[in-house]
Amino acid sequence: MTTAPAPGSATLTRDAAGERLSISDDWTLAHYPALQRRANELAGSIGADVAVDIARLGAMDTSGAFVIAELLGSARTQQLAQHEDLPAARRALLKTVGDAIDAYCKGVKRKRDAGFVEALERIGRSLEGFWKQTAKLLAFIGITLQGFLATVWQPKRWRVTSLVSHIEQTGLDAVPILALLSFMVGAVVAFLGSTALASYGASIFTVDLIGFAFLREFGVLLTSILLAGRTASAFTAQIGSMKAREEIDAIRTLGLDPVELLVLPRVLALLIALPLLTFIAMIAGIVGGGVVCMAVLKMSPSMFLSMFQADISLTQFLVGIAKAPVFAFMIGVIGCMEGFKVSGSAQSVGEHTTSAVVQSIFVVILLDALAALFYMEMGW
Residue ranges per domain, the chain? Predict the structure, then answer.
């Protein structure tokens, strides 16, 4: 009757000669759980100068060699692999396992160190992409202005039908949603303003708050953000679909200029529609604020209008409306530029449509902040 091989054991003893770790019996996969538990028990208690006794070591496979290497550490495992009392096969196994652990530890360290480098690399790529995108935008602005100057003095080259169609799509069709949005925002601003000013006994100045907010900022900003999401995406999708179907190449083959045919009518339509929509947004926002003033502050319409006329100057309106053409031009240019960058797949159309909306909103808010700083320095 044969007996089952005894699981490997590791015994740590201390005497006058120092520490001694005795490794005996079988260190194989069959006994791996027990070996791992014993190694965990001894972890941290083995000194740097421990002497390793392997005279009674039985069978050993890769699993056992791994536990021994984990217990002793890489350096001592490499020393043990040079022990003359071990057969050559076991020395080779211990050396292979030790080398593998060394390589793994170095790889983990490199990976941890690479995390910071990878973050810096990502930041660098983002900055590089930002500057490249800025350069492309400036170049496309130049192409658009060049095309405009080339056609403005030649009425026979004007695309009047396309211009009117885009004015209807970008302007007239956006009036209901813009008026409703501005009305509600005006009501919210008036309600919050009256609530905050009431604690100071200055609720009457809610009229001034509404006037300044919508004539200077909210009117043009709400309109521009709405058209950035509604119109810039439409321009990108329309031109991108034409690019995907190779219609842009067909236009060039016919000797026509895609910028003159596709970009100028859209940009000019926005230049006409956005200031008009801004005026509508201003009126709707002021009406919304006036309704709240009449309902909450019990202010009569005549009193609201008289205070508005007395405190709000024409300068506030001009400051706000002056930003509308700039925003319109940038929204139109970005929307058309992203359309021309579509590669040919439906996924590319979606990606560039999203990019057009994000870029348009970012540029609008950035230009609005710069304009606010400029107006503040000028005292307007």
Answer: 9-102, 158-378
**What residues contact 267, with CB distance under 8 A and at least 6 apart?**
144, 148, 328, 329, 332, 333, 336
Q: How far is the C-alpha of 135 from the C-alpha of 133, rounded, in Å?
A: 5
Instruction: Give how far Cα 337 sits from Cα of 54, 145, 230, 321, Å.
Output: 74, 13, 16, 25
Cα gap 187→262, rounded to integer Å: 39
**Could you tell me which residues come within 8 angstroms of residue 231 by beta carbon, excluding any fewer than 6 positions away?**
169, 170, 174, 270, 331, 332, 335
pLDDT tens readout for residues 359-372: 999 999 999 999 98
Q: What is the pLDDT of residues 285-295, one digit of tens each?
A: 999 999 998 88
| Phi and psi angles of residue 26, each rounded to the nearest 5 degrees, phi first | -90, 130
9-102: CATH, from 3.30.750, 3.90.1200, 1.10.287, 3.40.390: 3.30.750
